[in-house]
Amino acid sequence: MKRFLTFGMMAALVLLATTAAPAADAGKTATLKGWITDSFCGAKNANSEGAGCIKDCYNRGAKLELIADGKAYQLSNQKLAFENVGREVVITGTLDKDTIQVETIVPAKKDKV
């Protein structure tokens, strides 16, 4: 009986840990600055010169994503992302692991030197 209770408590703790961890990340609001690129070519086209290639890859089935701080983020609004290919952008949305539920995409302001 004691062994059964111990096993039951361990199973409950594992279940609690696996369900609580994803909920902590879900719904986190984020604002990220970076470049929209495609899932085929990735970071190598994360610049204005890569816009033509990104559009071609998108038309061949690639997904558009954001490269920010060396990390790729999936974007929920592919149409809005496509409209901003070839320029640095600021994306605001809800972050869930590596996916951004896009609220807004605006061109990034250029830093004055």
Summarize the structure.
By secondary structure, the chain is α+β, with helices and mostly antiparallel strands.
- Total strands: the figure is 5
What is the CATH topology? OB fold (Dihydrolipoamide Acetyltransferase, E2P)
Strand order of the largest sheet: 1-2-3-5-4
CATH class: Mainly Beta
N-to-C span: 73 Å
Global geometry: globular
Q: What CATH architecture would you give?
A: Beta Barrel
**Total discrete domains:** 1
The helix count comes to: 3
Mean pLDDT across all amino acids: 84
Note the beta-strand portion: 25-35%
- Helix fraction bin: 25-40%
Secondary-structure blueprint:
Blueprint: H1 2-25, E1 28-38, H2 51-59, E2 64-68, E3 71-75, H3 78-82, E4 88-96, E5 99-107
Parallel strand pairs: 3-5
Antiparallel strand pairs: 1-2, 1-4, 2-3, 4-5
Features:
113 residues; alpha+beta; OB fold (Dihydrolipoamide Acetyltransferase, E2P)
Give an overview in words:
This protein is α+β, with helices and mostly antiparallel strands and 113 residues long. It has a single domain, classed as OB fold (Dihydrolipoamide Acetyltransferase, E2P), CATH 2.40.50. The protein is built from three helices and five strands, in the order αβαββαββ. It has helices spanning 2-25, 51-59, 78-82, and strands at residues 28-38, 64-68, 71-75, 88-96, 99-107. A five-stranded mixed beta barrel has the order 1-2-3-5-4. A hairpin with a 2-residue loop joins strand 4 (88-96) and strand 5 (99-107). The termini are far apart. The model is unreliable at 14-24 (pLDDT under 50).
